[in-house]
Amino acid sequence: MFDDETTARPKAGRSANPGSQSALRMRNQLRVTDQLLRGGPATQAELSRMTGLSTATVSNIVKSMHTAGLVSLTPTTSSGRRAHSVRYVGDSSIAAGIDFGRSHLRVVLANRSHQVVAEREIPLPLGHDATVGIAAAAKLLEVLLAENGISRSNLIGAGAGIPGPIDRRTGKVIQGAILPEWVGINLHERLKSALNLPVFIENDANLGALAQISWGAFAAVPNLVFVKIGTGIGAGLIVNGALYSGSIGVTGEIGHLTITEAGLICRCGNRGCLETIASTATMIQLLSRDRSQPIDAEDIVRQAKSGDPTTLRVLEDAGTAVGRALATISNLMSPDVIVIGGPLATLGELLLTPVRRGLLRHAVPVVGENTTLATSSLGPRSEALGAVSLVFQHEPSQQTL
């Protein structure tokens, strides 16, 4: 670990050798830069904790970067004390974040300073195949670039996510995706060809987790679980500040944890999975009975907030089941925070209360009591923002340090 820096420079005409003080300073500045790109704005104290560099080292690096116009400083408070939020503003690079949903497509364009410069969501037909979805993404990307006067030369890559598992060894969508028409395709190659850009792909829940530590309120949280409750249920895991992908990239499939042995048969072939109890698809099916027209997720939110007893009971059962599944994860990894995302996140405590009840009932007491539950503050753009972060994590800083 490098924990010191100095302003000493090599003699004129000599390049810095790997062990020199100048090279050490350069590496330390790169570490600060990379952290700002990954995690977004942070105070100097937070940067010190997240990079492992001393506060004096970080202070000197930030001062130098501010003088060079690479970062901006905004007054803020941290732990009751005055501080400055440091934001990277170093170049004009733009990344695209693409979120493919069961019936929607969202594209976000953002810069390294974590500023969204363009964004749009459009509907996609239910049951659409990969050709339709990818073509729509390519077209929408070009529209956003043109409408906002962004040169394609500034676009350094695209991140993309789908609601389903992706085998990182092959880049293929595998069985279990909410988009069964996409199973078997090489999403990486297909999207790279259509966009003519470097492409990085992930499961949507993983991208939601990445967004929480790079765009949300949890940049300094080392261990976090993001749970997306939608047509399917998936979790993204942040372990020691980094996205956990396992051996083949398929992790967090909590929608297929068995909750009741005598339950309904799930689309995965097993019985009594969490998705058969707590997905929005299941809730919609239950609440649409005896209605001439089926409801949607927005109706669930509206009815719950108005105090409809049937809706609240469905949420109670679903939330308790989700909490039970999260207790299993919590007992294994003891996260600092669990964040609930998806279309029901705006329910706040109406959703969190039964989830918390299930968590506390089934987790080891000391784990459950020390795990914070929250709803995502990023709304429906969470996965697309995570996809933007994925690009910047893979793209090294272009700034000469």
Structure description:
By secondary structure, the chain is an alpha/beta fold. The chain folds into three domains: about 20-70 and about 80-90, Arc Repressor Mutant, subunit A (Orthogonal Bundle); about 95-210 and about 385-395, Nucleotidyltransferase, domain 5; about 220-375, 2-Layer Sandwich (Nucleotidyltransferase, domain 5). Helices cover about 40% and strands about 20% of the residues. It has 13 helices and 15 strands. Strands 6-5-4-7-10 form a five-stranded mixed β-sheet, with helices on both faces. Strands 13-12-11-14-15 form a five-stranded mixed β-sheet, with helices on one face. Helix 1 runs antiparallel to helix 13 (about 380-395) and helix 6 crosses helix 13. The longest helix is centred in the C-terminal third of the chain and has 25 residues, at about 310-335. The radius of gyration is 23 Å and the shape is globular. The two termini are about 20 Å apart. Residues about 1-20 and about 395-400 have low confidence and may be disordered. Belongs to the ROK (NagC/XylR) family. Pfam families: MarR_2, ROK.
User: What is the CATH superfamily classification of the largest domain?
Assistant: ATPase, nucleotide binding domain
Level of helix content? 25-40%
Top-tier CATH class of the largest domain: Alpha Beta
Low-pLDDT parts are 1-19, 397-401
Task: Tell me the strand percentage band.
Answer: 15-25%
Distance between the termini: 19 Å
Question: What is the CATH-assigned architecture of the largest domain?
Answer: 2-Layer Sandwich
Oligomer: single chain
- Mean pLDDT across all amino acids: 88
Described by strand count, sense and barrel closure, the largest sheet is: 5 strands, mixed
